[in-house]
């Protein structure tokens, strides 16, 4: 299997895309540490995924340096190593630009951008030490978004944070390339997660999403997980500093498409 024997940390791993990535990693032979701020969902995720392989849960606020330190240390204690990090933890806050509160802006950037920096730095420092001691290099995958490129007027903080993640990915990749550590990102489009729950009941919202999606459907978390598994594996050994946009064709689109139903 492509990730056989690898040790992975997946932040925001208790639900949605993070949970799907953890599942795929386990299926591909990796052991996984789930990191999430939601303890109940984390415990449920471990119970769900345990039949697939070795999985643990770490209660983690990725915006806290101490929590991140404990996450990395706990992963090494539980599994003996860290080969892969997926910076998936993220939050949204909906507000018009004129009404957006400073605290809410800071909170979104603290989790989405600072969290990726803290986790990436902590894992990279461990990886560099391991490499200097004769160990193997690893891979880091950041979760960006198409909203790093396009914008939504009611998702100011989220869009700004994901733009920052895309740039963070590039500078991390350049900084860590001398050690052989690869850093890439995924930019999902509209994916069937809890963030998109309103689409199930709001036909107008569904029409808006599908009208700008050439493939004519919402993506599945498993499809993002497949990209993460590729980037984390040796099959992507010559890829670093890149963002793969898994968006159903949205970014190249310069028009709306007809929608059935």
From TrEMBL:
Cross-referenced Gene3D superfamilies: NAD(P)-binding Rossmann-like Domain
One Pfam family named in its UniProt record: adh_short_C2
Keywords associated with the record: NAD, Oxidoreductase
Domain Ketoreductase: 6-189
Keyword NAD: yes
Keyword DNA-binding: no
Protein name: Glucose 1-dehydrogenase
Family note: Belongs to the short-chain dehydrogenases/reductases (SDR) family.
């Amino acid at each position: 299997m492509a990730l056989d024997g690898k040790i992975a940390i997946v932040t925001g791993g208790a639900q949605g895309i993070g949970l799907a990535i953890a599942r795929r990693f386990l299926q591909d032979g990796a052991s996984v540490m789930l990191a999430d701020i939601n303890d109940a969902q984390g415990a449920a995720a471990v119970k769900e995924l345990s039949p697939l392989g070795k999985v643990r849960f770490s209660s983690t606020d990725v915006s806290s340096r101490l929590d991140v330190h404990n996450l990395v240390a706990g992963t090494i204690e539980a599994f003996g190593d860290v080969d892969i990090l997926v910076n998936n933890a993220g939050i949204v806050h909906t507000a018009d630009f004129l009404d957006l509160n400073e605290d809410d802006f800071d909170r979104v950037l603290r989790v989405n951008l600072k969290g990726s920096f803290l986790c990436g730095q902590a894992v990279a420092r461990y990886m560099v030490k391991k490499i200097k001691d004769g160990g193997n290099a690893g891979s880091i995958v950041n979760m960006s978004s198409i909203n790093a490129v396009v914008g939504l007027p009611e998702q100011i903080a989220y869009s700004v944070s994901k733009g920052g993640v895309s740039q963070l990915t590039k500078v991390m990749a350049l900084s860590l390339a001398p050690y052989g550590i690869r850093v890439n990102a995924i930019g999902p489009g509209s994916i069937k997660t809890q963030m998109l729950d309103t689409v199930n009941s709001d036909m107008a919202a569904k029409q808006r999403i599908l009208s700008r999606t050439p493939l004519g459907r919402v993506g599945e978390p498993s499809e993002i997980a497949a990209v993460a598994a590729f980037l984390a594996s040796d099959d992507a050994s010559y890829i670093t500093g890149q963002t793969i946009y898994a968006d159903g064709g949205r970014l190249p689109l310069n028009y709306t498409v007809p929608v059935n139903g």
